[in-house]
Amino acid sequence: MDRGRMGARLALLWSWLCISALFGLPFTPTLDMDVTPRTTVLFNGLLGSRWFNSSSQNYSTLLLEDQAGVLYVGARGAIFALVTRDIGAAGSSRTINWEASAGQKLQCLNKGRDNQTECFNHIRFLQRFNETHLYVCGTHAFRPMCTYIDVDHFTLSSGFEDGREKCPYDPTNGYTGLFVDGEMYTASQYDFRSSPDIRRNYPYPTVKTEEGPIRWLLEANFVGSALVRDSVNSSVGDDDKIYFFFTERSQEQSPFFSQTRVARVARVCKGDWGGLRTLQKKWTSFLKARLVCSIPDYEFHLNVLRSVFLVEAQPAQSSIFYGVFGLEWTNVKTSAICRYSVEDVQKTFDGPFMESQESKWIEYTGKVPEPRPGSCITDAFRARGINSSRDLPDEVLNFARRHPLMSRHVRPQEERPLLFKRNVGYTQIAVRRVTALDGRPYHVLFIGTDEGWLHRAVEVGGRVHIIEELQLFEKTQPVDRLVISPLQRSIYIGSPTGVLQLPLSTCSRYTSCFDCIFARDPFCAWNGSACADIESQPGRSGLIQDILKGNRGCKNTKDGPTVFRVRSVMAGDDVLLQCELRSNLAAPRWTFNGRELQGYGLDSGFRVGTDGLLLIGARAEQSGHYACFAVENGVHVLAANYTVRVRTETVQPGESAPPPFPATERPLPSPPAPLEPVPLPQTFRNMETVYISLVAILGGLCLVLSVVLLYMSFSARTARRGKRGQQGPGRNERKRSSHMELKTISSRCNGERAERDERMAGATTVDGLLQIVPGEGQASPSKDSLPPAPPLPAPPPLPSSEYANGLSATLPSVLRKMNGNSYVLLRQADSDTTSPLYHSFTEELNRILEKRKHTQLVTSQPDESSV
Ligand SMILES: *[C@@H]1O[C@H](CO)[C@@H](O)[C@H](O)[C@H]1NC(C)=O
Ligand SMILES: *[C@@H]1O[C@H](CO)[C@@H](O)[C@H](O)[C@H]1NC(C)=O
Ligand SMILES: *[C@@H]1O[C@H](CO)[C@@H](O)[C@H](O)[C@H]1NC(C)=O
Ligand SMILES: *[C@@H]1O[C@H](CO)[C@@H](O)[C@H](O)[C@H]1NC(C)=O
Ligand SMILES: *[C@@H]1O[C@H](CO)[C@@H](O)[C@H](O)[C@H]1NC(C)=O
Ligand SMILES: *[C@@H]1O[C@H](CO)[C@@H](O)[C@H](O)[C@H]1NC(C)=O
Ligand SMILES: *[C@@H]1O[C@H](CO)[C@@H](O)[C@H](O)[C@H]1NC(C)=O
Ligand SMILES: *[C@@H]1O[C@H](CO)[C@@H](O)[C@H](O)[C@H]1NC(C)=O
């Protein structure tokens, strides 16, 4: 016992040291950026979705022709033309089957390729060629081919072209390509033997990147490309530019030595035809720079680019682009979104060059030849008699060849990510500019994850608010492509098994004025009776919306879907007053007879959770009015109102409604002694147990937080250690609101939900002491009200369903302070469960449900419910 106590004290001391050390660190910035999606919509709660699939796989190349109402889809061995209004409409799709021949597949197999995945014709390029034809390229079982598609008849033209220099062999190789004014640009490492290359394939002669003496590209993995029309209304006679986005192996010394790869932006001028003698058929205007997306003060760099989206503006220089970044360690899932301006990229390209000296890259400080190398041909060049890249002097071209890399980095606007999310692997981004009711333009971000979720978010003042997270597919699979149709007000999502069409917003999901404005969805406004798409409304007057703050405009805080109930219970019973909040960002507040209910301590007889208020052993003085308010953006909205009557006298059989069971069966066996409404521990032994448990929990907490800390600091420094992030705090756990408290009882924990939890939580076992299970705000997609006194099935055992009963009221606040995201159910090590102070959550739930059944039977007045 003594040794145990010593150990406990030491552990307590260590815990506090550890916790205070943690608080000493400036953890807030990252937490601010790691926002919780306001609502969670599961697959079966999707509204207005359409689905297209066929026997093909890998629907990863999408070409939208919005005006024509056609979505072209390149898949494995097939090309489809779908009707954008409803891609799933029966009989409306047209198909071209284009698979590699059996002989070709055999050759592919003989090359040592996988005949289950690689030896197929994966469509990688699909673009408009001219008024009547599309141009399409496929990997064709490791022998790329290209051809034309006659759009009217939707057939392949008979002539096939060699695609070896236009399309990669490998279906998974990074690749980007586009047609600009009839010119075809592509970038990829086409073959595993060849070097990566950015080229103009067409018209001839082909222009490429240079391989010597300095490699312009090193193991580059391309994710995107974009045209910026700088020539339009240019006062200097500027040229259009094509930007390429990729991740490559870093050549220059990086201060972040753990990382071997860097994100880059490169550009070429559209009018570049290469040099005459030097840089013949090579870009004279190729420049590249590093794209930085890192968390200030942490030296935490997200160095792998996964997707980019250009938001065009007038003039072209004011365009901006969004990048999705991740880490090169595949076992650490972390994502960030950074936003850049094209103007900043241009400034970087006008800045100092880097130079390689004895295989070290340093800033070049010598004289730069005139006219400036890497420039597009402008009026200033023409005034000097240089009409095209072929007229550039050798001196300039030689400099350009040796100095492709800029010294300055392209930094994100705001100098930090807009969004940083741990445990989420973003794969794709698409952005839509929307003018809200306040007349300001907002960017709505659609971000897909590797597990098939879509985050819909709005950017407000350099911060991102995630309106909702949507589960797109029944089975987990990555989002491969996102395309927005402004005309159809839809987003199309390409995935391995099919294409999904979703409306850009689903305002009808919000059922009250406050729900509508809390969502801060620029597409939606409250019209007095419903939350509706602004576009669908005849006029804009009378509409209510508040994107900036999300709390102004609505009047009646009681107009929501409020539950009114009367509940009669027997003294000594446990009662759950349900109050489930739809929003993950809302916090529950309870009032009792109009006064805020405070102190959910051991002896108060109350416990509060995300889903309700628990009265433990109801006493007569607890009769009265209970109201649950959802607090969001500083507004208290009434969510539930209960009138509780605690009866002290025993109800005589026959006095009220005759019971369906013989009276003798009614009083259910009272719970055994250990299940007494948690008494304050009186004895020293009990004190000891509480003490040790507290220590255990704090210790465990500290362990977890230490791991978080280690992950944050070490992953930024060493790649090797970063690999250990695997054991980090619940890689798969779902982030939840910072306002979460301990979950008490969920009467709605059906199998599906438990299953989802399990899947989301992963089996996160932190050895020995405690287990952390993700907090769960609201998971039910339906906005249904609470059923009147629901007849509840016995809940399945929850994963890790025990927690320190007596400590529940004090722990969450500690947890909350430590991490903006909640972790709510704490589980004691097995040995602790034998303690009389701890009993199973399931057991407790069962007991309460039993009692509630009992309560219903003796209630003379049935529950009255209204919504
Ligand atoms: C298409 O999707 C539906 C719904 O997910 C599924 O039932 C069906 O089997 C799929 N068809 C094919 C050919 O994969
Ligand atoms: C793939 O190749 C293996 C032999 O390596 C063969 O047994 C198998 O049937 C092939 N699968 C398909 C789908 O062609
Ligand atoms: C478009 O290109 C195809 C393939 O080169 C050609 O056959 C067709 O005539 C062209 N159509 C027009 C309208 O130029
Ligand atoms: C170019 O300038 C003209 C006249 O100043 C203007 O009408 C036009 O909209 C501008 N075009 C673009 C694309 O900015
Ligand atoms: C450039 O074009 C101008 C006018 O078109 C012409 O006078 C001049 O000779 C050209 N210069 C060269 C080097 O071709
Ligand atoms: C194609 O889809 C399958 C699953 O259906 C997936 O395993 C594979 O990685 C996908 N291939 C590509 C190139 O996306
Ligand atoms: C509000 O919008 C809904 C849905 O568009 C519509 O049915 C309803 O009539 C509108 N109400 C008012 C008051 O405009
Ligand atoms: C709850 O309902 C009761 C009875 O209808 C009412 O007296 C009380 O004011 C309501 N409480 C709130 C907060 O609206």
TrEMBL record:
Membrane topology, as annotated: Single-pass type I membrane protein
A GO CC term attached to the entry: plasma membrane
Region called Disordered, residue ranges: 650-673, 719-805
Record-level GO BP terms: axon guidance; neural crest cell migration; positive regulation of cell migration; semaphorin-plexin signaling pathway
Transmembrane segments: 690-714
Domain Sema residue range list: 38-504
Coiled-coil segments on the chain, per record: none
InterPro entries to which the protein is assigned, alphabetical: Ig-like_dom, Ig-like_dom_sf, Ig-like_fold, Ig_sub, Plexin_repeat, PSI, Semap_dom, Semap_dom_sf
Leader peptide range in chain numbering: 1-24
Pfam families xrefs: PSI (PF01437), Sema (PF01403)
Subcellular localization(s) per the UniProt record: Membrane
Keywords on record: Developmental protein, Differentiation, Disulfide bond, Glycoprotein, Immunoglobulin domain, Membrane, Neurogenesis, Phosphoprotein, Signal, Transmembrane, Transmembrane helix
Residue ranges, compositional bias (Pro residues): 656-673, 787-799
CDD domains: Ig_Sema4B_like (cd05872)
Domain Ig-like: residue ranges: 561-645
One MF term in the entry's GO annotations: semaphorin receptor binding
Entry-linked PANTHER family: SEMAPHORIN (PTHR11036), SEMAPHORIN-4G (PTHR11036:SF17)
Membership in a protein family: Belongs to the semaphorin family.
Record's protein name: Semaphorin 4G
Gene name of this polypeptide: SEMA4G
